[in-house]
Write a structure and sequence with these properties.
mainly alpha, 2 helices, 84% helix
């Protein structure tokens, strides 16, 4: 049987990591938005930043999905 306190700690850690990934992606996409809004999209490598943002959100999303599977199994 899984200890509820351990589950709560693991869930809190996972939420923290997911929020971290979203903050990273937000910073990247905000940088792109800012450069475009200032009329200077060529000042940054928009394509690479977009690719990086997609990779970050994908990786953190995959991790969150794996943890959701864990919690689903632990709830049974």
């Amino acid at each position: 049987m899984v200890d509820r306190k351990d589950l709560a700690i693991r869930a809190a850690n996972q939420l923290s990591e997911s929020a971290r990934g979203l903050r990273f992606a937000n910073a990247l996409f905000h940088t792109i938005h800012y450069a475009v809004a200032m009329g200077r999209p060529g000042a940054i490598d928009v394509s690479s930043l977009m690719e990086l943002g997609c990779e970050v959100t994908g990786n953190y999303g995959e991790l969150a999905g794996e943890e959701a599977d864990f919690f689903s199994g632990a709830a049974e």
